[in-house]
Write a structure and sequence with these properties.
alpha+beta
């Protein structure tokens, strides 16, 4: 789940979800408030009609029966009762009182009381399916007051306009009706996020595949116009890069290949040199040149990705490479098991491992190879017992033809291409290659290979 929300799809989904929920909550809040205002206006109008009806009827009821009538008629939010004493009245008539007095006529005298009914200050509640942010609760904001009505016969009655009663229970959970709404907007937000981020994910995967395999199939043009344009531009860029790499590889391979013939002729002619000392020096220089040509060819091959990828047993390959090195007289020790397969080109991976082991034996006298299984990958560490490399030059040794000024120079047989070739091969297989000076001495090369998953 954490990985989902760290990606663009999860973030777009979260923004859409929160935006829609916030908009829905605001709309619901405004709708509830508007409904409350409408209800208040309706209640005020109903109170006005009911008050006029009760007062007009009380006027025609006989005085001795009026008290009994008032008990029966005052059972709701509108109460009319006999005022045994005249309470304190306000200097001005309220808006509700003025409207009621106008409807009753000049035979009735109305006065607003200073003291409001206690129920006006009590929190009340009107029906609300979703009481968001307190909407639907609180103090009643409609008409709530007391009036003194002087009847035509001179009797004083007290009219109280009270808040509505509590709403009747609905019999079901209103929040449950909100669940389908949340599910629908969640599905909608997820589909929009997938539709928006899907093409970008394809472009990201294509860029990743381009780093591992320059000959990877181009992106299929589909989707919106902007995505199709970006995909076409990416395919064109991949084709240009592939062409440039092919031209460089062919040029390097041609040069190094063509150099082998004159170098062979020179070796044959040097055999006829009479001076043994001069002959030895010339043959030594010629051997160095032939080694450079050989590694130049290896570098060109390391850039070639035409060999088909296949499933490779890493443990079997390591056993074979270390056994061959031991047969050649090199001191190589292998520990651990990867117990995993990987996708790769067996000859290239072998060349990468051989270069690293040769370097360890040549400059550190002995190679300690350790392999271990990690989550979704395997790690191969090759450590020597040499002097190591200055920290400032750990990254530079991967550059072509770069040599250190100490034992790792041309006189010891190095041409500066071995690590370059190894890194090229590792990157083409989605692996990483790094160098570090070991705490117990020597240089340690670390290779991390991704695991092969069927169908991936």
């Amino acid at each position: 789940m954490k990985a989902f929300f760290q990606g663009m799809t999860g973030r777009v989904f979260l923004v859409l979800m929160l935006g829609i929920i916030a908009s829905a909550a605001l709309t619901q809040y405004l709708a509830i408030n508007e409904r409350q205002r409408t209800l208040q206006r309706y209640r005020d109008f109903h109170a006005l009609e009911r008050s006029e009806q009760i007062i007009s009827t009380a006027d025609v009821v006989l005085p001795e029966s009026r008290i009994q009538y008032l008990k029966v008629a005052s059972m709701g939010a509108i109460k009319l009762e006999v005022a045994n004493r005249l309470p304190a009245v306000a200097s001005e008539l309220s808006e509700f009182g003025a409207t009621l007095a106008n409807r009753l006529g000049k035979d009735y005298k109305l006065q607003s009381l200073v003291e409001r009914p206690e129920a006006c200050e009590r929190p009340t509640q009107v029906y609300s399916a979703f009481p968001l942010f307190g909407a639907g609760t609180g103090v009643w904001r409609g008409t709530c007051e007391s009036l003194v009505v002087t009847m035509p016969d001179g009797q004083h009655l007290k009219l109280s306009i009270l808040p509505p009663r509590q709403p009747a229970p609905t019999g079901h959970n209103e929040y449950a009706t909100f669940v389908p709404f949340l599910l629908s907007i969640a599905i909608l937000a997820y589909l929009v996020a997938r539709m928006t981020m899907g093409p970008l994910k394809k472009l990201a995967d294509a860029a990743k595949n381009l780093g591992n395999d320059i000959n990877h199939a181009p992106i299929k043009l589909s989707g919106a116009t902007e995505i199709r344009t970006a995909s076409a531009a990416f395919n064109a860029m991949q084709a240009r890069i592939r062409q440039h790499i092919a031209q460089r590889t062919e040029m390097l391979a041609a040069i190094t290949h063509d150099l082998q013939t004159p170098l062979t002729r020179m070796r044959l002619r040097l055999e006829k040199v009479q001076d043994p000392e001069l002959q030895g020096k010339l043959l030594e220089d010629l051997s160095a040149m032939q080694q450079m040509v050989k590694e130049g060819l290896d570098l060109a091959r390391s850039m070639d990705t035409t060999e088909a990828m296949q499933r490779v047993d890493l443990d079997a390959l390591l056993d074979s490479v270390c056994a061959d090195a031991a047969d050649a007289g090199q001191e190589v020790e292998l520990k651990g098991r990867a117990a995993m397969d990987m996708m790769g080109r067996p000859l290239d991976i072998r060349r990468c491992l051989v270069n690293l082991i040769d370097n360890a034996v040549k400059y550190g006298h002995r190679a300690h190879v350790t392999v271990e299984r990690l989550a979704g990958s395997s790690r191969v560490r090759i450590r020597d017992e040499g002097p190591g490399i200055p920290p400032g030059q750990l990254a530079q040794v991967f550059e072509p033809f770069y040599r250190l000024e100490t034992s790792r120079n041309r006189s010891s047989g190095g041409t500066g291409l071995g690590l370059t070739i190894a890194r090229n091969i590792a990157e083409q297989h989605g692996a990483s290659l790094s160098l570090a000076n070991h705490a117990n001495g020597g240089l340690e090369a670390t290779l991390v290979f991704p695991e092969f998953y069927a169908g991936k």
